[in-house]
Amino acid sequence: MIQTIDRMRLANRQELLTLLATAITEMTISARAHYDVDDSVSHLRQTNEAIHRLAGHLRDLCDPNETLSESRAAGIGGQFTLLPPSAITRILNSANTNPH
Fold first, then answer.
1. How far apart are CA 77 and CA 53, in angstroms?
2. Residue 98 to residue 100: CA distance in whole angstroms
3. What percent of the chain has pLDDT over 90?
4. Tens digit of pLDDT for each residue in 65-83?
5. Cβ contact 53:75 at 8 Å
6. Taking Cα atoms as reference points, which of 57, 78, 68 lies closest to residue 2?
7. Residue 3 neighbours by CB under 8 Å, 6+ apart
8. Please, which residues have CB within 8 angstroms of residue 54's CB and are 6 or more apart in sequence?
């Protein structure tokens, strides 16, 4: 989670929004993998809550005056704990763009 939060801190606005959008996509992919699992209802509820929170942060951060506070970064990073390491890697790599 620390790596994710550090990456968010270094990101420009576009990269940050891309990270969040990619995280939401990864959450939906992860949820689909649990459709037929015995505890799927519990996992899907947890994933739905995480998607809800990430979408709210994404919406808020579309406002250029909204800052990535430490508490917001921690909240976003906390949602990533539901994802496997490979998904975290894809999220972190999603915003690797050429410097401006």
1. 11
2. 6
3. 69
4. 999 999 999 999 999 999 9
5. yes
6. 78
7. 88, 92
8. 20, 23, 24, 27, 76, 79
What are the φ and ψ backbone dihedral angles of 83, each rounded to 5 degrees? -100, 150
Please state the three-class secondary structure of the chain as a single string. Answer: CHHHHHHHHHCCHHHHHHHHHHHHHHHHHHHHCCCCCCCHHHHHHHHHHHHHHHHHHHHHHCCCCCCCCHHHHHHHHHHHHHCCHHHHHHHHHHCCCCCC
Please say whether the beta carbons of 58 and 21 come within 8 A.
Answer: yes
pTM: 0.86
Contact present, 50 and 27 (Cβ < 8 Å): yes
* First-to-final CA distance of the chain: 27
Mean pLDDT of the chain: 90
